[in-house]
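Forum > Structural Biology > Help requests

Title: Can anyone predict the 3D structure of Methyl-coenzyme M reductase operon protein D?

Hi all, first post here. I have the sequence for Methyl-coenzyme M reductase operon protein D but no way to get a structure on my laptop. I'd be grateful if someone could post the structure tokens.
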Amino acid sequence: METSASDTKKPIQIEIFPKRMIKPDTVEGLLNKLCSLEGIQRAFIQGPRLPTKVPFGPAVGTPVHHPSRTNVHFGKTEMGLEVLVGRITLELAGKEIMEEINAICEDTLPCGYDIREGRFIQTRQTVSDYAKRGPTADPALYGLYDPKSKVESQVNLLRTNEKE
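Reply #1:
Sure, ran it for you. Structure tokens for Methyl-coenzyme M reductase operon protein D below:
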């Protein structure tokens, strides 16, 4: 098996797992601070989906006005928050910024949190990726497809280290 230059420097994936769900203003502050760091290649937020309509029961079809379903601004991006954020997964170029991430979480998160290292984002193309993006999909987007989301609600933020 051949070893390429990209295999020798594999990215590190970490998961920030707060002890409680994070409010939208805290998510916005955390993402703004994390976006300012160099070395973050991909980011992924997860949590239970906030429904737009009542899915069942006597009020089925009635609009849900959840206070956490707002827009968050980070960097130059505005994104509609469709989940209660329960964990944030980051792919890092190296371990050099781990202390900075830990300090940001300590300052920003009002509750306790855990940071775990492991594999949380797919590194190979999944069946959903192939079905949505085809065989020539960008490898930076592998594993970041949500089958329930609509195309207009997806935000893909990729940071390249290339200088233009």
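Residues 12-54+63-121 form a domain with the Aldehyde Oxidoreductase; domain 3 fold (CATH 3.90.1170). Residues 1-7, 156-164 have pLDDT under 50 and may be disordered.
Shout if anything looks off.
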